[in-house]
Amino acid sequence: MSKSLAISQRGIEMPASPIRKLAPLAYAAKDRGVKVYHLNIGQPDLPTPQKALDVLKNIDRTTLEYSPSQGYRSLREGLVNYYERYQIKLSPDDIIVTAGGSEAVLFAFLSCLNPGDEIIVPEPAYANYMSFAIAAGAVIRSVTTTIEEGFCLPKVEKFEELINERTKAILICNPNNPTGYLYTQKEMNQIRDIVKKYNLFLFSDEVYREFIYTGSPYISAMHLEGIEQHVVLIDSVSKRYSECGIRIGALISKNQAVKDTVMKFCQARLSPPLIGQLVAEASIEGTEQYSREMYDEYVERRKALIDGLNRIDGCYTPVPMGAFYTVAKLPVEDAEDFCAWCLRDFAWKDEKTPANCTGETVMMAPAAGFYSTPGLGRNEVRLAYVLNKDDIRRSLFILGKALEQYNAR
Fold first, then answer.
1. Are 367 and 330 in contact (CB under 8 A)?
2. Residue 63 contacts by C-beta under 8 Å, 6 or more apart in sequence?
3. pLDDT of 27-64, one tens digit each?
4. pLDDT per residue over 286-305, tens digit each?
5. Alpha carbons 17 and 21: distance in angstroms, whole number
6. Left (φ > 0), alpha (ψ -120 to 50) or beta: where does 219 sit?
7. d(CA 46, CA 131)
8. Is the alpha carbon torsion for 325, 331, 337, 338 positive or negative?
9. Taking residues 181-208, what's their average pLDDT?
10. What strand order describes the sheet that includes 118-123?
11. Are 320 and 181 in contact (CB under 8 A)?
12. Which 3 state secondary structure label does DSSP give 69?
């Protein structure tokens, strides 16, 4: 008798993306002629720097070869200069180029954690951290932050309650995805002291450092004294240059054993994307004006989203100090059901609706998928302000109408 085929246990445990799990409903809505405003995903609509596009259009190679497994040295040297602007002092050998920040997180977990090891992560957190932990056989232990307290970091005691002999690391995202929270110097010092006291790794995802909307300084994990050998920094060019599709990130560490181990995984996947590296390298220098203009645009988009959202009856979000996301509380019991309903059963139409549309709706990411603790975030959504200001205002108007209809059923 033949055995039935079964997928792996880790595959069963792997969560669906809260950002993309409603995508089939969005595709179906578009097939019906509905215009969907995408507030669900951090895909900037701003153009990639022209300098980078010119390189892409004028590649004159006759062979598209493997690159070195750690990435081209010229790109890593360019990144050294980039980090110097943020008082992060590195050598090219401290930087390993990866296929996006996601691969950097996965390689960090695979290199530093054994199956069963635990990582403490403030929640809500980027949902794919859980996926990468499952792939590595590691366990996420969550310390909860709340919308009522603006998602600030809990006290040391809350971390220490979770620490045991299996605890191996703390993971932070600063500025934070999904909340937009920016860690203070005091909070970063708190994390440093815990890492040092319990001899832990500190994984620090800092891909949104360009997007900080306060006078408070950006504190990198690389700035923290006394834990230089503990820090593994995760980075990506996706957001700061609107280059999500080229899949170029970086894993950065001064710990030689970590780098040597990461390189084994890098060699196993052969090389990071060749064309992506050429585009990324062209983006680093001479794009300062581009970065200033992009920053100014996000400042205005943030204001449009936060002001408009908090004017909708029953909605609340704190003001995010970084990134281009916010988590908002909605006047519904089940935000996932509401988000699905918006795509499946709702389409607003008025005199402003484009003539070629059957209606308009919004797509959001249910925030429960960003929490590890069951039941949390049930009435919250993550919103990305990556649309132009007119579209943000229009999408919030439609959200208000959707909430009225949904709650009147």
1. no
2. none
3. 999 999 999 999 999 888 899 999 999 999 999 999 99
4. 999 999 999 999 999 999 99
5. 5
6. beta
7. 29
8. negative
9. 97
10. 95-98, 249-253, 231-236, 201-205, 167-173, 118-123, 139-144
11. yes
12. coil
**Three-class secondary structure of residue 105 per DSSP:** helix
E strand or H helix at 263: helix 256-268
* Alpha-carbon gap, residue 329 to 382, rounded angstroms: 9
Within 10 angstroms of residue 11's Cβ, the number of other Cβ atoms is 10
- Whether the CB-CB separation of 96 and 71 falls below 8 Å is answered with yes
Residue given tokens 């957190």 in the structure block: 125
CB 271 within 8 A of CB 67: yes
Would you call the peptide bond into 331 cis, given omega within 30 degrees of 0 as the criterion?
no
Q: How much is the pLDDT for 216?
A: 84
- Alpha-carbon distance of 101 to 106, in angstroms, equals 9
401-405: long-range contacts, CB 8 A cutoff, minimum separation 24? 401/348, 402/338, 402/341, 402/342, 402/346, 402/348, 402/361, 402/362, 403/312, 403/313, 403/314, 403/315, 403/330, 403/331, 403/332, 403/338, 405/346
The residue type at 61: R
Which letter does DSSP use for residue 233 in this model? E
Cβ contact 262:70 at 8 Å: no
Q: How far apart are CA 402 and CA 348, in angstroms?
A: 8
How would you label 272-307 residue by residue, b for 16+ Cβ within 10 Å and e otherwise? bbebbbbbbbbbbeebeebeeebeebbeebbebbbe
In DSSP terms, which residues pair with 382 in a beta bridge? 327, 365
Hey, what's the torsion of the CAs at 34, 38, 44, 45, to 10 degrees? Answer: 20
> CA–CA separation, 206 vs 231, rounded Å?
12
> What does the alpha-carbon distance between residue 236 and residue 266 come to, in Å, rounded to a whole number?
16
The structure tokens 């308009």 sit at: 360
Q: How far does CA 393 lie from the centroid of its chain?
A: 23
Supply 300's token pair.
């205005």
> Over the stretch 106-121, which tens digit does the pLDDT of each residue have?
999 999 999 999 999 9
Compute the Cα dihedral for 197, 198, 200, 203 and give only its sign: negative
Residue 2 pLDDT > 70: no
Tokens (6 digits) for 15: 């969560």
Q: Does the reported pTM lie above 0.85? A: yes
Which residue is listed with tokens 């609706």?
353
